[in-house]
Design brief:
Chain A is of the alpha+beta class and about 210 residues long. Helices cover about 50% and strands about 10% of the residues of chain A. Chain B is α+β, with helices and mostly antiparallel strands. Helices cover about 30% and strands about 20% of the residues of chain B. The chains are: A alpha+beta (about 210), B alpha+beta (about 325). Chain A: Keywords: Iron, Metal-binding, Oxidoreductase.
Chain lengths: ~210, ~325
């Protein structure tokens, strides 16, 4: 059973790849300079196939300019976790329902799981890894520690990224308002009351977030 | 997610032209619904035309109303000073929907184009006439707790999930769309359609057309508003039933009123009969009840959503009471 599955997966992978190889060779012959055709003939068509199915992306992540090639179907979440090893941003539901993947794009909180990475061309992305300055934690990270704003910690990066924007947007004046504007971040451990305390504390402390 | 090709455009003209290059191509705006549908295999475009950088996000006053660009983000609309001043109902409805993260991504046009959240539509292993015409409707005789009580057909009982669209229907908004043949206007109430025999068609937008703007006519008399959304939890859930009300009072008499509902039909459900009944009458619970009774005469439920036959009129009455009291009950 397992072997069959493996064979099927291998087979479907191979056929897609060989289709792209064929089409890449044809495209190369139709459009490309002679060097590309030579490359294709020398068996370098894997590279050409990869070029056709991927796109260049230039995006700034935590202040660092990243230039990668990715397929259009790759989400920002998968780019961060699988390609750039920024695994602080978590994959919870992968359907925009839990908020574990919350990051900032140009300073606004969004769900990275519903953002196609190619759409972030030229944008500025901040993840949980981009908050601390060396050993100095961001005030919101400090407050989550101080108030025990988590139990298992899986939702925490998303909670913290969301909480920062909750204050920046001006929606952290009362516990009720915080609960409403943090509703896009689910915590299965139920650390909500401590999360609200942490946010209230940062808001009242008046430190720049 | 299946593979697709991607192109980014910066003008409406280029968007329409790029879309025409592939029969399955779709516009990508905020992506909060489309990317999810693609992950689930419900929608499988082979080409995406990214329109997020087309300059259509302006919110500005015209001589007769407010013009909102189709790519304005839900958050930007909900918090815009002109929206808060002239159309508080729209702001209330938007803030009742989704989460702050999703509202930062979702656009006005995309909100209108979002598909139903019916579980049978989302689960590709189950029958659904909307996803796969002719395969049957799983919700009829199945789990129908979230489903329609107005205007459904024997092919589909799904509801349109938007809150924003309920407010725009009540406020008599007009949509501008543009396509290869030029521009045309669609009144908001005519945009979404009832399922009939073709539930796979959600609205009257034609293939190749792009929504560019929504205009809401000024009617500053309608300042008393309330959007009441009843759902399974206090926030971040789709409506079981919602009601948006905008009214003006002269003394205790209703000078003018607009009412629309969400979570009850395949389109935002405007309550014209109730509005006509209430106009000129004193704003009393008795009249609100009668308006709700008139509305419910057309309602029909399945076993799973029969509770909506009680919940819907109560929601209408409560929303009217709250609007008439300006929220001070």
């Amino acid at each position: 059973m397992k072997d069959d599955q493996l064979m099927n997966e291998e087979h479907s992978g191979t056929s897609r790849r060989s289709f792209l190889k064929r089409t890449s060779l044809m495209t190369a012959m139709a459009l490309a300079p002679e060097t590309v055709i030579k490359a294709a003939e020398k068996g370098l068509d894997e590279k050409i196939a990869a070029t056709i199915e991927t796109m260049p992306l230039n995006v700034t992540i935590n202040g660092v300019k990243q230039s990668v090639r990715i397929e259009p179907r790759v989400t920002l979440l998968d780019l961060l976790r699988e390609r750039l090893q920024l695994t602080g941003t978590k994959k919870g539901c992968d359907h925009g329902q839990c908020g574990a993947c919350t990051v900032h794009i140009d300073g606004e909180r969004v769900n990275a799981c519903l953002t196609l990475a190619v759409t972030t061309e030229g944008r500025d992305v901040t993840t949980i890894e981009g908050l601390a300055k060396g050993d100095e934690l961001h005030p919101m990270q400090e407050a989550f520690l101080e108030h025990d704003g988590f139990q298992c910690g899986y939702c925490t990066p998303g909670q913290i990224m969301s909480a920062i924007c909750c204050i920046r947007e001006g929606h952290a004046d009362t516990p009720d308002e915080i609960r409403e504007y943090m509703s896009g971040n689910i915590c299965r451990c139920g650390a909500y009351s401590n999360i609200v305390d942490a946010i209230m504390d940062v808001k009242q402390g008046g430190k720049k977030v | 997610m299946k593979q697709f090709s991607y192109v980014r455009v910066t003008s409406g003209k280029a968007a329409i032209s790029e879309l025409s290059k592939d029969k399955t191509a779709m516009f990508l705006a905020g992506g909060t619904n489309l990317v999810d549908l693609m992950k689930s295999g419900v929608t499988n475009p082979e080409r995406l035309v990214d329109i997020t950088r087309v300059p259509l996000a302006t919110i500005e006053a015209t001589k007769t109303g407010l013009r909102i660009g189709a790519l304005a983000k839900n958050t930007a609309v909900a918090e815009h000073p002109l929206v808060l001043k002239h159309f508080p109902l729209l702001s209330q409805a938007l803030n009742a929907g989704a989460s702050p993260q999703l509202r930062n991504m979702a656009t006005v046009g995309g909100n209108m184009m979002q598909r139903t959240r019916c579980h049978y539509f989302y689960d590709t292993a189950l029958p659904c006439n909307k996803r796969n015409p002719g395969s049957g409707c799983g919700a009829i005789g199945g789990f129908s707790r979230m489903h329609a009580i107005f205007g459904a057909s024997d092919k589909c009982i799904a509801v349109h999930p938007s809150d924003m669209c309920v407010a725009l229907t009540a406020l008599d908004a007009v949509i501008t769309v543009t396509g290869a043949k030029g521009e045309r206007k669609i009144s908001f109430g005519e945009f979404h359609r009832l399922p009939g025999d073709t539930p796979e068609i959600d609205n009257t937008l034609q293939r190749g057309e792009l929504i560019t703007a929504v205009d809401i006519p000024f009617n500053d008399a309608l300042q008393q508003t309330h959007y009441l959304k009843v759902r399974d939890r206090a926030s971040y859930a789709f409506a079981l039933v919602s009601a948006g009300v905008a009214l003006s009072l002269k003394g205790n008499n209703i000078a003018d009123v607009r009412i629309a509902m969400g979570g009850v039909a395949h389109k935002p459900w405007r309550l014209k009969e109730a509005e006509a009944y209430l106009k000129g009458k004193p704003a009393t619970e008795e009249h609100f009840r009668e308006a709700a009774r008139l509305t419910m005469a057309q309602a029909k439920a399945e076993e799973g959503n029969a509770y909506k036959l009680t919940l819907a009129p109560n929601t209408i009455v409560e929303a009217l009471k709250l609007a008439a009291a300006n929220g001070n009950i």
